[in-house]
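Hi Prof. W.,

I finally got the Exodeoxyribonuclease III prediction working! I wasn't sure whether to trim anything, so I left the full sequence exactly as given:
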Amino acid sequence: MKLASWNVNGIRGIHKKGLFLPFIEGVKPDIVCLQETKAEQHQSEIDLPEYKEYWNSSTARKGYAGTAIFTKESPSSVVLGLPENIVEKYSLSKDTYGDPNKEGRVITAEYKDFFIVSVYTPNSKGDLSRLNLRHKHWDPAFLAHVKQLNKQKPVIFCGDLNVAHTPDDLAHPKENEGEHGFTKEERVGVDNIIRAGFVDSFRHFTPKGKEHYTWWSHFRNARARNIGWRIDYFFISQKLLPKLRSAKIHSGFLGSDHCPISIELDV
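And this is what came out:
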């Protein structure tokens, strides 16, 4: 089974450019997880008869954030957002930017042998004004969600985590130390995911090495120069590791400031 993930930074825009369907045709995923859809399902104008579509669109602000799962196999259940008991436990409520659990940032689909979660983690902002929400509330709440799922069956979660985990995951770590996307607090969030037993699928095959990026700034021709960040991930439960066959970054697909990523599993 092949699974793909892509922060499309606006599903309508990328489709109008004629760049979404070539990705589907080129990668041929069985399940596609999307982030930053910035639309509701009826607005997407995408016709993929092979896939069933499940959307979690922002109710707080139209045309903002949002996640979706396109899948060839029907899941047994789909849950939008984080569970209320977790939201309450971690006080994941409205900040000055809004309520992150109403921004369409998480969608969870259950299949016979695993759960899959598409996630678009809140950005800490350039002035770090959302770092407290991210570090103290969102990251522990999301981890609690996937750990809770993992008690039932293995979990695959993927998407834009808005953090480069190690110095190998961005082109200029020294210059960006302490900046949003590379603070100690954000990186600890990924440390905690790994301590909980989830595996960074790409680093399983490529434990070291730079130049493997999934996001590039629009400024200074960053993408052409490959001055980027790896902030999009596929994490899998330890139980699925023997079935993991590949983990790839598809930097050749354009249309977004992010590129797609994928994994293959024998499931």
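The radius of gyration is 17 Å. Does that look reasonable to you?

Thanks,
D.
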